[in-house]
Design brief:
With about 325 residues, this protein is α/β, with parallel strands linked by helices. The protein contains ten helices and 14 strands. It has a seven-stranded parallel beta sheet, with helices on both faces.
């Protein structure tokens, strides 16, 4: 297949692009490099330095090459930051995706796999969360992604767009030469591993008074390679059906304190922690029911264990800083 990957210099998009290449597919990456560097674009792909909001540029690219599908990862992803500058998230995540959809429609490019999020659910009424759960985001990040899902539904009904919306939970772990690194870093596992390496003094726990067994938020963690597999399976599944909405997760949750304790075991370090007040917009529990992904895509996570996810991240994290010297 010839596949266009938006946001393909990032952690998740770059991992998917790498595995597509390894599977023998042709990959073109579009990325504005706002939150990534040129050397993070996977070797072997054609790279286009562009913003997905630039509809004329995208339309020209889609006309030049006949893509079998588009995997859309380009987005801002920080829920906490979205509570500060919601307009930035609606512009970059929602409005920019509309430009992509318009370019796809204009060029007859009809297969899209969209990187959605568990944040579309907000505070769930039941756990694990099925795809039929109420959609009520508690932050603008989740709302910006939900608005895209609404657009996809209408483009499907009125323009024949075939799409898969994959709502995923906390992505973590690493490939041997590619892992999670954001600037600035806000995700819990790389922050914990920074403490283990002595790069940070302590890990901050935002709230220990939630209605959970140990008072800290519970999240469902999925290995990035498992996530990548699901995207490739979803692109193939669009040959059989024109609309897919699936959760991607392990169906089990781990609290912040449990993840920290697992990291202490994996790294063999103390990892000091300090409790801070809750952050606005953080649901207490987010755990997926991934039965639809199993049924529709035939997807089963190969690495569901939190210890193994952390081990892969720890190996890459050490290598990352050793390489920097």
């Amino acid at each position: 297949m010839n596949v266009l990957v938006t946001g393909g210099a990032g952690y998740i998009g770059g991992t998917v692009a790498t595995l597509l290449l390894q599977a023998g597919h042709t990959v073109v990456v579009v990325d504005s490099l706002i939150h990534a560097k040129r050397n993070e674009v996977p070797a072997g792909v054609e790279f286009v330095d562009a913003d997905i909001a630039d509809r004329p540029r995208l339309e020209a690219l889609l006309r030049e090459q006949k893509f079998d599908g588009v995997l859309h990862f380009a987005a801002l992803i920080e829920a906490g930051d979205s509570m500060r500058v919601p307009e930035v998230y609606f512009r970059n995540n929602t409005a920019a995706t509309l430009a992509l959809l318009e370019a796809m429609h204009a060029t007859g490019t009809n297969n899209l796999v969209f990187s959605s999020t568990a944040a579309v659910y907000g505070e769930p009424e039941a756990v694990p969360i099925p795809e039929t759960a109420r959609l009520q985001p508690t932050n603008p990040y989740g709302e910006s992604k939900l608005l895209v899902e609404y657009m996809l539904r209408w483009f499907n009904q009125l323009h024949g767009l075939r799409y898969a919306s994959l709502r995923y939970f906390n992505v973590a772990g690493a490939l041997p030469h590619r892992g999670e690194a954001h600037e600035p870093e806000t995700h819990i596992i790389p922050l914990i591993l920074d403490v283990a390496l002595g790069r940070r003094e302590k890990i901050l726990i935002y709230g220990d008074d939630y209605d959970t067994p140990d008072g800290t938020c519970i999240r469902d963690y999925i290995h990035v390679a498992d996530l990548a597999d699901a995207h490739i399976l979803a692109l193939d599944a669009l040959k059989r059906q024109d609309r897919i909405v699936c959760n991607l997760g392990n169906g089990q949750g781990f609290s912040v304190k449990e993840v920290i304790e697992a990291a202490r075991k994996v790294t063999g370090t103390a990892i000091p922690a300090e409790v801070k007040p809750r952050r606005a917009g953080d649901p207490a529990r987010l755990v997926a029911s991934a039965e639809e992904a199993h049924r529709i895509l035939g997807w089963v996570p190969k690495t569901p264990e939190i210890d193994r996810i952390l081990e892969s991240a720890w190996q890459w994290h050490q290598q990352r800083y050793a390489t920097r010297g």
